[in-house]
Amino acid sequence: MHFRRRILQPRLLPPLSQVLFIQPSRSYASSTFLLSPFLPFSRPSPKHYIKIFIASGFLLSTSLILYENSENRRIDKAVRKGTLPELDISSDKYYPRPQVLEQLKKIFTPQKNSRPYYIIYGKHGIGKSTSIKMALKEVGQGVIYVDIPLDTNDFGKSFAKAMNITVSDLTGYNKNEPWKVALNAFERAAKDYKAKYGRPLVIIYDNVDRLIHKNTQILDILQSSVTECDIKKNYIAVFVGSEYLFPQRMSSHGYWTDLDYFEIGDLTENESIDYLSTKKNIKVAEANKIYELTGGCIEDLEIAADDLISGQSIEDIKQRIKMDVEHKFRDAKLFPNEKYYETGRNIINALLKSKELCLTELWKYSNYSDSDNEILSKSIFAYHPETHKITLQSKSIEYYIRENAKYYIE
């Protein structure tokens, strides 16, 4: 087959001036100009508006949720509201102490002349944590409470929880140092809080003794953080504990002028009798006998009262107390021929005569040395850091000593 090639002839374009002024036909314009406001199908329908409204609401709510759940927002919320630790205690185990409560509230509500950090001190079972939690219920805003757990490896989790930081926020950090993440977050929050409210934030570290034996470095860093922030006074730290080694460690790593102390002591004799008679329904005569055996430590009073209520006699309670104290003497190596027997006996005799000793007076005993400081960390003697005085820890200790006078009293 043969194809005939057809060559198309080019057509000339109109002049440019004509192109610029070419107008579309009226029918074309009417059918294609969709933006005309006069055409009914160009106006969005009510359903269209509803869809836009729903979509906008969804985006807004999503944005708010993301904002509320953001790390900074959660931390800010924790700081504004303050930490309100759980306080699960029955009325028969709590005795109100208005003076203690008021002093704690003053510490937790800092003024211009407040010290950068405080040590709240008192022996085990005296009610420190309970009193602090009661005060926090009234103070609220601007106070973060961190309870150091028995397993100090979980300190980071406890700190993060107090700061409203989730576990996912800690992902990617050294698993052994999440507390540093929480501390850094707290320092930033303290700076923002000071700028916004014009007063320092407060943080409470409860049960600091638990860091002394295994994680002393953590305690040192927590204290250093306060010192470094003291120039701007962004926050105040409160360290709470019981053992002799804890205030000694802190005072040796800081300036005495930076520290302030508040000791929570025993109930007075009248308070102890009132507690036993009103809270435990113990007769006054028996309440007096219990007080002479235990002293004013509320935990000791409670145990003795429960023993009496359960049917035990005062003599039974005496025997139980003697056994408990005997365990403490064994743990302190204060039995005859043991490591601290001679040193301990000298201190005991001095305390029986004068009721208290200055810490520096211990050096007048020829056989006392730095290694003997360990004896002060046991539950035989009580150290009072504000006055640097030593006393016997309780009436039950004195009772045991007098019952075993041939071994301990010269």
TrEMBL record:
InterPro entries: ATPase_dom (IPR011579), P-loop_NTPase (IPR027417). One of its GO terms (molecular function) is ATP binding. SUPFAM superfamilies: P-loop containing nucleoside triphosphate hydrolases. Residues 97-301 form the ATPase domain. Pfam families: ATPase_2. This is 10234_t:CDS:1.
